Model the fold of this input.
Amino acid sequence: MRRLLSCLVLSLGLLAGTAHADAAKLYFGAGFSDGSVDIANGSDKSLGTVTATVGLQLLDFIGVEFEVGSASDQSGSILSEPLVTYQAVMLRLGYRWDRAGIYLLGGQARMDIDDQFNNSDAGNAVGFGINLFGNETTALNFHVLDFDDGAFSTATIGFQYYFGGFR
Done:
């Protein structure tokens, strides 16, 4: 996994170096989601999740995104005593029409899931999403992520802020 991430970062670094300086856009976001963790006996448990995202839009259609999240079944313990935490590094492929954009996400994730649920600790992260821009820099964001073939999944609503605008 370390070798795959190293190759991905190196490749994207070379791509970013060849892109025009004004084309790369840094963005960040935050969101709240309903997470679902797969329990070993075959059922699912719903968890409230808080997420944070940082990304770099290299070209209009390609970017790199880093997302972290924390989930718990009690709102007071989401950050202090989470049942699930994750970190994901993903490639983002998308397309924008005027003030709306859709995208696909794919990459690797590291998870820390409470032992009472399942024993997943790493795996693939895949998902899709949509951005609805209210102005040049701020977007309402909806996205869905699936980790390690369903060991944990999220459906997030939040915002993303693009430094310098999305154009």
